[in-house]
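for the writeup, i need someone to sanity check this before i put it in the appendix. the sequnce is what the collaborator sent (i think, or maybe the updated version? ugh). structure was predicted straight from it, no edits. if anything looks off just tell me and ill rerun, i have time this weekend
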Amino acid sequence: MSPRVLPPLPAGLVDFESRGFRTANAAARALLERRAGAFLTGYNTLRRHGVGELPFHLGPMPLDDQGFAYEGAAFAACAHDVLLGRKRNSTLDDLFALAGDRYPHLMHVGAGWVGLLAPPSTVLRRAKLDPLLRWLTLDGAGFSRAFLRGRRWNERFRRASWSSSPSHTVLHQGVGRAMWFMECADPAAIRRRIAAFPPQAHAELWSGVGLAVCYAGGADHAALDDLTSLTGPDRVALAQGAAFAAGARGAAGHVPEHTATGVRELAGVPVDEAVEWTVAAAHVVSAGELDIAAYRQWQHLIRDRAARHV
């Protein structure tokens, strides 16, 4: 069965005005809509042409956008596999063989978008994913729901009883990442939105924001100044998200200026050092079983390093 069985995703899906997102910052809106549009390009390209043709269609895109395109391609690949019930020789396996060394973080997140169609556990059971990065699928599930399901879903999620379970906290990180898009890079608006959540959720939401700021971009000097005024657990979680962005950009071999600036401001160190935090922490947790508790330990070890610099 061809990936063409998947429905195409229309360009209007990422128009901020039609989605009811904030639009006051024209420059940030244009950039973030472009990032989201690259996701659609990746999804629709894989759907139309399959994995083998992706380099020809995505290669000419700006390097800053290609990670988003492969995230979208991973969503299409994983959705196709779920429809077919494939566990072996899957489209997602082929995609990871093609670009998994360059975009492992984004492609695990993209696979998590299947949470729109099936329980997130479905992809964790069926797909061959990196033992540690596979938990990023939960981040993708949180982002996709917050971004696509609208104000009503976000309000229900905010009102839901808080759970300290690791899967619940990682879902919040994806929702926090979506806030950067929904509030169009406005830290004051994000603060208000996060303040309405239970206090236990705040650090996890800010972790997602930090990842979005430094990977997607859109923060001007005033926004970065506002974000660096955070204190305590929220500040170190923001720095951990920035370090994740550094790791993702570093894996692709291209670190845009906005990532270098954002990581320096939010994590207090150069990109290379932030990447080293993620690598060193991964070595520590890899000695044991790489379940979701290990993933959370990985994040907290990075936050411990960040606490010395912010």
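The chain has a mean pLDDT of 94. The chain is about 70% helix and 0% strand.
thx in advance!!
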